[in-house]
Design goal:
Layout (H helix, E strand, L loop, with lengths): L8 H11 L21 H9 L12 H17 L6 E5 L2 H16 L5 E5 L5 H9 L2 E5 L9 H6 L5 E7 L11 H10 L4 E5 L6 H6 L14 E6 L12 E5 L2 H5 L3 E3 L7 E3 L8 H38 L5 E2 L7 E5 L3 H10 L5 E3 L2 E5 L6 H18 L2
Bound molecules: pyridoxal-5'-phosphate.
The site of pyridoxal-5'-phosphate has 15 residues, from α4.
């Protein structure tokens, strides 16, 4: 019921505290299956200070607009481009929708089709429904990366583009983006790379010596990349990123906004009014941590993943789905549903994904949390097996 009379701020906050008591929090160390994390304190402070900035009306907040551009430039740079075109958006979903929109608008074909791996994130289902683009699914190989030959066999006159994934949602697998890029060039098609998760992991992991395929704009067929600062970038939600190689993609999705207080502008994002604070927080985090800072975050997460995968193998009744590529480790079990249920009953925030449980080594996940989890998992698995 909409209250007729207001309550004091103190009362409201107390009630909220009670109502959210059951929420799991990232700093408890119990959330092991999320790609989000407790944001970095500097980013939280930036959001607090600049909470009123609206990049939907950038004529009013020209300084913030400039900062967003710089954030996009730094992300482009991380992804191998000197200058990119894009925005800080609400998340990977919006970023993927914008890429599909750009490909569709530029292709101008009837009954457009997009080819994507079976491992693609469900945001593409939303894009498909909203944009009238048919999804054509390409098979996965045994290692769970997309089968590039199957992608090729699905190209038709109606194809508007190809999607590859750098860090799949369930397993953190990186597709063979170099081959997809060659294929895209050969057929004159744009390639979109969904690096919503991997974008803030792979560049650093590669420098640390991990053997991961190239995935970014250094490959000429790659025309757009999704990269989410609100995942491994440690920026508060909402902060996604879409970067295009060329201006024409952004122009293809720009709509004239005629009435804004700051003047007429062309708007490419799905959201109109949108948080400038998010873009400022992305900028601040990149400036604060720099490449070396993020590299250390990724080093810890990758090392923890390898250790955790090794420990999982010692538990009877559960098995690794595949060796980890990034900082995601997924395991299965003959008795998965019961296992999952019992882990949840013990207060673990885990994510079940198409027949396996996914553990994501986000910055808030520490070895002691995982040791406790492994103890619980071992006990439960032993209880389930005859
Ligand atoms: C590969 C990938 N793409 C896109 C998304 C969607 O991101 P968001 O939830 O920020 O919209 C996710 C989310 O987990 C993802 O893993």
């Amino acid at each position: 019921m909409f209250p007729r009379k207001g309550a004091s701020g103190e009362e409201v906050l107390e009630e909220l505290e009670r109502k959210t008591e059951e929420d799991l929090t990232f700093d408890s160390g119990r959330i092991l299956g999320s790609m989000c994390t407790y944001p970095h304190p500097l980013a939280v402070e930036v959001v607090r200070r600049y909470i009123d900035r609206n990049l939907g009306d950038p004529g009013l907040h020209v300084g913030s607009q400039r900062v967003e551009k710089e954030a996009v430039d730094m992300l482009s740079n991380l992804l191998g481009l000197e200058r990119g075109y894009g925005h800080i958006v609400s998340g990977g979903t919006e970023a993927n929708i914008l890429a599909v929109r750009a490909f569709r608008n530029l292709a101008d074909v009837e009954k457009p089709e997009l080819i994507l791996p079976e491992s693609a994130h469900f945001s593409f289902l939303k894009a498909s429904e909203m944009l009238g683009v048919k999804l054509v699914w390409a098979k996965l190989k045994e290692d769970y990366s997309v089968d590039v030959r199957d992608v090729e066999s699905k190209i038709t006159d109606r194809t508007i583009g190809i999607v590859g994934i750098a860090g799949t949602t369930g397993l953190g697998v990186v597709d063979d983006i170099p081959s997809l890029s060659d294929l895209a060039i050969e057929h004159g098609l744009p390639l979109h790379v969904d690096a919503a998760f991997g974008g803030f992991v792979i560049p650093f992991a590669k420098e640390l010596g991990y053997d991961i395929p190239d995935f970014d704009f250094r490959l000429k067929g790659v025309k757009s990349i999704t990269i989410d600062p609100h995942k491994m970038g440690m920026v508060p939600i909402p902060a996604g990123g879409i970067i295009f190689r060329e201006k024409k993609y952004l122009e293809a999705i720009s709509i004239l906004a005629p009435y804004l207080a700051g003047g007429r502008i062309w708007q490419a994002t799905i959201t109109g009014t949108r948080p400038g604070a998010s873009a400022l927080a992305v900028w601040a985090m990149i400036k604060h941590l720099g490449f070396e800072g993020y590299k250390e975050v990724v080093r810890e997460a990758m090392e923890l993943s390898r250790w955790f995968a090794g420990e999982l193998k010692k538990i009877p009744g559960v098995y690794l789905i595949r060796e980890p590529v990034l900082n995601i480790v997924s395991f299965g079990s003959e008795r998965l549903e019961e296992l999952e249920e019992r882990l949840k009953n013990r207060g673990w925030g885990i994510s079940a994904h198409r027949g396996y449980v996914r553990i994501v080594m986000m910055p808030h996940v520490k070895r002691e949390h995982l040791e406790e989890f492994l103890r619980d998992l071992g006990e439960i698995a032993a209880g389930l097996n005859p």
